[in-house]
Amino acid sequence: MHTIEGGVTAAKGFLASGIASGIKKRKKDLALVVSLQECTFAGSFTTNLVKAAPVLWDQKLVAESKTVKGIVINSGNANACTGKQGMEDTKTMASLTALALGKSFGSESILVCSTGVIGVPLPMDTVTKGIGLCAKELKEGKEAASLAAEAICTTDTFSKEIAVEVAIGDTMVHIGGMAKGSGMIHPNMATMLSFITTDAVIEKSVLQQLLGNTVVDSYNMISVDGDTSTNDTVLVLANGMSQCPSLVPGGPYWDDFTQAFDYVHTYLAKAIVRDGEGAGKFIEVQVNGARDKKTAQTLARSVVKSNLVKAAFFGSDANWGRILCAMGYSGASFDPACVTLSFASAKGSLVVVKEGQPIVFDEKLAKTILLEKEVQVFANVGEGSGSGTAWGCDLSYEYVRINGDYRS
Question: Which one of 82, 97, 191, 228 is the catalytic residue?
Answer without folding.
Answer: 191
